[in-house]
Amino acid sequence: MNDRTETTLDGYWTPPTALTLVALRNGLRAMIIGRRLDRQASNLAKQGYLTVYPSSLGQEACQVAAAQALGPDDWLFPTYRDSVAMFTHRIDPVKVLTMLRGDWHCGFDPKAHRCAPHSTPLATHCAHAVGLAMASVKKGEKRVAMALCGDGATSEGDFHEALNIAAVFKAPVVFFVQHNGYAISTPSRRQFRAKSLADKAIGYGIRGEKVDGNDFVATISVLRDAVEHARNGFGPVLVEARTYRVSPHTNADDPDRYRNRSEAEPWLEHDPIARLTEYLTAQGRLARDTLRDIEDAAEELAADLRRRVMIPPEADPARLFAHVYADPPPHLQEQRIAVLSEEYVA
Amino acid sequence: MNDRTETTLDGYWTPPTALTLVALRNGLRAMIIGRRLDRQASNLAKQGYLTVYPSSLGQEACQVAAAQALGPDDWLFPTYRDSVAMFTHRIDPVKVLTMLRGDWHCGFDPKAHRCAPHSTPLATHCAHAVGLAMASVKKGEKRVAMALCGDGATSEGDFHEALNIAAVFKAPVVFFVQHNGYAISTPSRRQFRAKSLADKAIGYGIRGEKVDGNDFVATISVLRDAVEHARNGFGPVLVEARTYRVSPHTNADDPDRYRNRSEAEPWLEHDPIARLTEYLTAQGRLARDTLRDIEDAAEELAADLRRRVMIPPEADPARLFAHVYADPPPHLQEQRIAVLSEEYVA
Amino acid sequence: MNAGADIATTTVTMVDALNLALRDSMTEDENVVVFGEDVGVLGGVFRVTSGLTETFGKDRCFDMPIAEAGIMGVAIGMTALGLRPVVEMQFDAFGYPAMEQMFSHLAKLRNRTEGRWPVPIVVRVPYGGGIGAVEHHSDSSEAYFAQTPGLKVYTPATVGDAYTLLREAIAQDDPVIFFEPKRLYWEKAELPVPEAAEAVPGRAVIRREGEDATLITYGPSLSVCLAAAKAAAAEGYDVGVIDLRSVVPFDEGTAADALARTGRGIVVHESAGYCGVGAEITARLTELCFDILEAPIQRVTGRDIPYPPPHLEHHHLPSVSRILDALADIL
Amino acid sequence: MNAGADIATTTVTMVDALNLALRDSMTEDENVVVFGEDVGVLGGVFRVTSGLTETFGKDRCFDMPIAEAGIMGVAIGMTALGLRPVVEMQFDAFGYPAMEQMFSHLAKLRNRTEGRWPVPIVVRVPYGGGIGAVEHHSDSSEAYFAQTPGLKVYTPATVGDAYTLLREAIAQDDPVIFFEPKRLYWEKAELPVPEAAEAVPGRAVIRREGEDATLITYGPSLSVCLAAAKAAAAEGYDVGVIDLRSVVPFDEGTAADALARTGRGIVVHESAGYCGVGAEITARLTELCFDILEAPIQRVTGRDIPYPPPHLEHHHLPSVSRILDALADIL
Ligand SMILES: Cc1ncc(C[n+]2csc(CCOP(=O)(O)OP(=O)(O)O)c2C)c(N)n1
Ligand SMILES: Cc1ncc(C[n+]2csc(CCOP(=O)(O)OP(=O)(O)O)c2C)c(N)n1
Ligand SMILES: [Mg+2]
Ligand SMILES: [Mg+2]
Question: Which CATH code is given to the segment(s) C202-330?
Answer without folding.
Answer: 3.40.50.920
